[in-house]
Design a protein that fits this description.
This protein is α/β, with parallel strands linked by helices and about 325 residues long. It has helices at about 60-75, 90-100, 115-125, 155-165, 185-195, 210-220, 235-245, 260-265, 280-295, 320-325, and strands spanning about 25, 50-55, 80-85, 105-110, 130-135, 150, 175, 200-205, 230, 250-255, 275, 305-310, 310-315. It is built from 10 helices and 13 strands. The longest helix is centred in the C-terminal third of the chain and has 18 residues, at about 280-295.
């Protein structure tokens, strides 16, 4: 499968064979699977408890993939995985506090709104609970007590998109941010704008797809020079396709992140490309890293983030991604 990588200091992720799935608690949108269909033996290390706490909104399939990776690592490592999520920063902080109160052996957490999580994460550190971050907040991860971060450098990913658009002679992108103040999303659009100065930012309410569609439609009707509109998540991008059609716009569509439907749109040429941050690896790596700390004091990353992207998926390699999507890992 053809892929393009932009890297800084990074540690390679190691794939591990699929094993039977442990039970886990959940407050997310997807029902936990009883098993993943694999075979094999879980680690003989003592049972440990890890909390995975994300800012995932309801219905976003990206987070199902993150969670699937975490569940497979938990199965291999003899870990009880406690998965909880809330897109509201204050409630995510409360979930961290609950994990501290439960005396978990490790916390994996997304840092979309780091300022709101600072105090609760300090309590975790003070309690001696090791922390890793994933997906969002790479730049503040160490400051908030995490020993490493699993994810894509979001500004670097944005620059990769900007470079590709500039090379294809796009000059007036509209970059759509579905959660104002989310540090990762803001960094993506900033990265695009650094390479294509004519980029405009459009804020939408990502919790309401009807509103996303109408806001983007109005923008495209008003901005006749917009030549490409960029979604920062697969469900948003798929909605933007409707906006382009409704507005009668000639703008092309590009994206960040991935799901099976988006991969198919790329394969058939409806969407130009996406930048994949490989969420399965984020979930898997975060849980496995916490197990490694418990097992032998091993710390992945050497004090640097472990990059899981960015990777460009375009028409040349989208068919392969669709194949992996059938397995629920892309």
């Amino acid at each position: 499968m053809k892929k393009f990588f932009w890297r800084r200091a990074a540690v390679a992720a190691v794939a591990v064979p699929m094993l039977a799935l442990t039970a886990c608690s959940s407050q997310g949108g997807r029902t936990p699977e009883a098993n993943n269909g694999g075979g094999g033996q879980a680690a003989s290390t003592p049972r440990m408890k890890i909390a995975l706490i994300t800012h995932a909104p309801a219905g976003d399939t990206f987070w199902d993939t993150v969670r699937k990776g975490a569940e497979e690592a938990a199965a291999k490592d003899n870990v009880e995985l406690l998965y909880t999520n809330d897109p509201e920063a204050g409630r995510q902080a409360q979930l961290i506090q609950q994990a501290v109160d439960q005396k978990v052996d490790g916390i994996a957490v997304t840092l979309a709104t780091p300022g709101a999580l600072k105090d609760s994460l300090k309590k975790a550190s003070d309690a001696g609970i090791p922390i890793v971050s994933l997906n969002a907040g790479e730049s503040v991860s160490k400051e908030l007590g995490a020993f490493t971060h699993f994810g894509s450098n979001e500004e670097l990913a944005g620059q990769a998109v900007g470079e590709k658009l500039a090379a294809e002679n796009f000059r007036h992108p509209v970059c759509v941010i579905q959660a104002q103040g989310h540090v990762g999303l803001e960094a993506r659009c900033a990265g695009v704008k650094s390479k294509v100065p004519g980029t405009e930012i459009l804020y939408v309410n990502g919790a309401d797809m009807t509103s996303v569609e109408s806001t983007a439609t109005a923008k495209l009707q008003a901005a006749k020079d917009a030549d490409v509109i960029i979604g920062l998540g697969a469900p948003i991008t798929l909605t933007l396709l409707k906006s382009v059609a409704t507005a009668g716009s000639s703008a092309k569509v590009a994206s960040f992140d991935l799901n099976k439907d988006l991969a198919q749109k790329i394969a058939d040429g409806t969407v130009l490309f996406t930048v994949d941050q490989q969420p399965w690896l984020q979930g898997y790596g975060s849980v496995d890293a916490l197990w490694q700390v418990k097992r032998g004091g091993f710390k992945l990353g050497g004090g640097q983030p472990v990059l899981t992207g960015p990777t460009i998926v375009d028409k040349s390699n989208a068919a392969d991604v669709v194949k992996f999507s059938d397995q629920g890992i892309r």
